[in-house]
Model the fold of this input.
Amino acid sequence: MEIKSFLKIVFISIIISLAYSSNANSSTISGFELQKKIEVWLKDRGKNANIAILEQIKYPYCDNSKLLINDISGNYKLIKVNCVGKNSWQFIVRNKINEKFKKKERINKKIQVIALKNSKNKDEIISEEDLVLISKKGSERMYVTNKKDVIGKKLTRSLRSKEALKYSNLKNDWLIEKNAIVTIINNKSFITIKEEGLAMDDANFMEKIRVKNIKSGKIIEGYAKNKKKVILNTKQN
Done:
């Protein structure tokens, strides 16, 4: 009887331990998992992946719907990973492109690149209907070859019809863009102060941004909470 009771206690202890371990694992995401996600993201865009993230590093768990991966260099050398939400975090990882392979690329080789069907002006948004494929001599590092990298982006300058798109022609995707009208929110004890402001910089989620108080003309620093909201304290909602 005593042996049965002992075995029962051991069995229950194992179950509790496994449950705890499962919960602990589900609350984080490892460097290994993040590296695989970035590699898949690069592969989907026809790019080689050569990144390294310490496998043992743990980040707060981030659902796929809240995990944002962006190329911030224009040539897939620097990849920014953002987790938006309650436990937000971000980091930048370098994608080390093989220099020997790059030197062997032939600039004279014709490649299929993305171009505009009709002319468009600076700051206009590009849609899928605006795009066509053309053949052009050059390097894939210079010209856009994947429609996914273009759709929804704004132009940095006006372009002619059938002009091949370069990465330098595309504006970065910013949560708040410079000169946008935003609401400055300052929570003080039991009172919340809201004032209209003008963004002086571009910024992504919870990055520092300078804003000008339209009423007072004073320029202050805050954090980009969403497209229309700048908070003065990172602990504010």
